[in-house]
UniProtKB/TrEMBL annotation:
Residues 42-278 form the Protein kinase domain. Gene3D superfamilies: Transferase(Phosphotransferase) domain 1. It comes from Symbiodinium pilosum (Dinoflagellate). It comes from the Eukaryota. Pfam families: Pkinase (PF00069). The lineage of its organism: Eukaryota, Sar, Alveolata, Dinophyceae, Suessiales. This is Protein kinase domain-containing protein. One of its GO terms (molecular function) is ATP binding.
Length: 278
């Protein structure tokens, strides 16, 4: 048992060492590619939204209105039992890993239909990154607020607006899936589709995204690379493909499935049903 415990400790130490190495590599990348941000130059304003693991703030950086995303520290929420403390520590670590993954992914992407990444601060205990400020908010909030304004249960945006949103999302997915190392978003939903003041749409939130290995095409143009191991149950259930819910093997088609449900929601004004996938 002692040997087993020591072996387990060694594995954890190796994993922690690898994470530290990855973090240092990310800091080196930030410096060499000139997207490292000095934390003292950023003034945080009101909190725009929070999830279990992250918080998004309106901020100012060098006179520019931006959005800052950081880890939400659940350890400060008043939890005091030993088990709750351990769970909160685990949640913070997972949230930090997801944030660093999102920074690593966004720093390599540039496309008109993706929210613009401006840089990140990695030199303080609380890491954060900055993106452009999208004044129009997200599609989910836009749809909900207009249902209230029009006093209807099924608000639908004007046809030309809906079509513009569909095209923007399609272009973003075509870009992500067509990269040398394809990227699966894995959490495409109205909350992750942001709007400018003029209602132009851009895709955001790559915390759960998956960067795939490069495709190996055979003579017929078919991808001959072995199927990678994929995590099941990732994303938001309402927009989650059946194979993800069932913890089965899946591909970038899961983003297309979510996109279809989003188009249905926007075009009909009705949220998609929660079907049984079992």
């Amino acid at each position: 048992m002692k040997a087993l415990a020591e072996a387990g400790a060694n594995i954890l130490d190796e994993a922690a060492g690898q994470k530290n190495t990855d973090f240092e590599a990310l800091k080196t990348m930030a410096a060499s590619e000139h997207w490292s941000i000095i934390a003292s130059e950023v003034q945080f304003g009101k909190c725009l939204s929070t999830t279990i693991k992250s918080a998004v703030y309106l901020a100012t950086w060098r006179g520019l209105k931006v959005v800052a995303k950081t880890v939400k520290d659940v350890r400060a929420s008043g939890l005091n039992t030993r088990r709750q403390h351990q769970e909160s520590e685990s949640t913070v670590q997972i949230a930090r890993d997801e944030l660093l993954h999102e920074i690593r992914t966004l720093s390599t992407l540039r496309h008109p239909d993706l929210v613009l990444f401006l840089g990140a601060s990695l030199d303080t205990e609380t890491c954060f990154f900055l993106t452009e400020y999208m004044e129009g908010g997200d599609v989910e909030t836009y749809m909900r607020s207009n249902r209230v304004k029009t006093n209807t249960k099924e608000f639908k945006p004007p046809y030309h607006v809906s079509l513009s949103w569909f095209l923007s999302t399609a272009r973003a997915l075509a870009f992500l899936h067509g990269c040398a190392r394809p990227i699966i978003h894995r959490d495409l939903k109205p909350l992750n589709l942001l709007l400018t003041k003029g209602l132009d749409l851009k895709v955001t939130d790559f915390g759960l995204s998956k960067i795939m290995r490069p495709k190996l095409l055979d003579r017929s143009g078919t991808d001959a690379s072995p199927a990678p191991l994929m995590s099941g149950g990732v994303g938001t259930y309402r927009y989650m493909a059946p194979e993800v819910v069932r913890y089965e093997q899946y591909t970038d088609r899961i983003d297309i499935y979510a996109f279809a449900l989003i188009m249905y929601y926007i075009a009909s004004g009705r949220a998609c049903c929660m079907c049984s996938f079992c």
